[in-house]
Design brief:
The protein is mostly helical and 226 residues long. The protein contains nine helices and three strands. 65% of the residues lie in helices and 8% in strands.
């Protein structure tokens, strides 16, 4: 029964998420309603099951990033985290280190940190020579390229694993809820990026070549699909 409740909770989370397209939200809500009627479950049944599993599953990790271009590298980490169902924010810097606070399942945090280590090593190895402005622009493009590559891998994984989109959406919703409940008040910001520069284009092309397959998205999915 717990698997069924988790399945319904995932459908409801997808339906209520502000970024879910309206047709998809309506379909998810209809499926959840049908399952609840069939098994005689109420909103309180689903909420209680979700609350108990929520506390058990979400962990918090502080990742410290030091060295050159640490602010830009921090943003790359945050991009990877979001794609792996981890809510996050940049905390106050400490002793010339940038700190990113990650909220998510242990497996998702581990995947995020492992991929970032690989991406960070790749960037350090292949970043071209140039002045600071040129290299910052390259890293901005590299971040976008990594995002493109991982988003493609995630899309392929979801297409090959029916129901995985609901599980991943619910994972992020739980992590985001935990962060906004227990973390500080957060405000957004905007950074201008000149996407027409040669440095940005070079970095983006390099980032797009990063290949992870879909392995980093698979952890625990089978057990969470009803």
């Amino acid at each position: 029964m717990s698997d069924l409740r988790d399945r319904i909770a995932s459908l409801l989370a997808l339906a209520r998420h502000p970024n879910t397209p309206q047709p998809e939200a309506e379909t998810a809500l209809a499926m959840a309603s049908k399952l609840m009627q069939k098994h005689g479950l109420t909103d309180s049944d689903i909420s209680s099951a979700r609350d108990s599993s929520h506390e058990a599953e979400i962990s918090v990790h502080h990742e410290r990033i030091s060295g050159k271009y640490r602010v830009r590298r921090t943003q790359i980490l945050q991009t990877i985290a979001r794609l792996h169902s981890c809510a996050n924010y940049r905390d106050l810097d400490d002793n010339n280190e940038c700190i990113v606070v990650l909220y998510g399942r242990e497996a998702d945090i581990f995947a995020t940190r492992t991929l970032f280590a690989a991406v960070d090593a790749l960037a350090a190895r292949v970043i071209p020579k140039g002045d600071r402005a040129w290299r910052v622009a390259w890293l901005k493009g590299f971040q976008r390229g990594i995002e493109d590559a991982l988003a493609t891998s995630k899309k392929e994984f979801i297409s090959e694993t029916p129901g995985a989109d609901l599980v991943l959406a619910d994972r992020f919703a739980r992590a985001d809820h935990e962060m906004r409940t227990h973390g500080p008040a957060l405000t957004g910001g905007y950074t201008y990026v000149d996407t027409s520069s040669g440095a940005y284009t070079s970095g983006r092309n390099t980032g797009r070549s990063f290949n992870t397959g879909s392995r980093s998205f698979t952890s625990g999915i089978r057990g969470e699909l009803s």
